[in-house]
Amino acid sequence: MKILILNGPNLNLLGQREPGVYGTESFEVYFKKLQLRFPSVDLHYYQSNVEGELINKLHEVGFSFDGIILNAGAYTHTSVALHDAIGAITTPVVEVHISNVYAREEFRHKSLITAKCKGLITGFGLEGYAMAIGYLTGHS
Ligand code: DQA
Fold it and tell me: Does the model's pTM come out above 0.70?
């Protein structure tokens, strides 16, 4: 089973960026732990700060992978193009946010992508990615 974790803008700074909100662990370190925790899953990871690169990646894997876990960062709240890209592919997408976006500023309460995703996991820290893998491995 092939799963891509796709992280959007500023998530390359996890571990350094607002640790009170996003924690102190880098995604690279956490990704290695995920690989050990889910040895039977062929896990891939890609991060970009560029909206078009995220869309290109969705197109690239979105007809062949078994699942995509997408944390689109701030593009969640702004990107019609990501909404359309998720709608255009056949691979199921699970939306993940590390923080609880509903406990934060109002502009984070609206997601333009949730309607095209299987579901939304928000507020469980990095564990949300593991929860999404758990869902995808049981449902595809
Ligand atoms: C985030 C929440 C977004 O509102 C924010 O812009 C991010 C990270 C999260 O994982 O909690 O960059 O997606």
Answer: yes
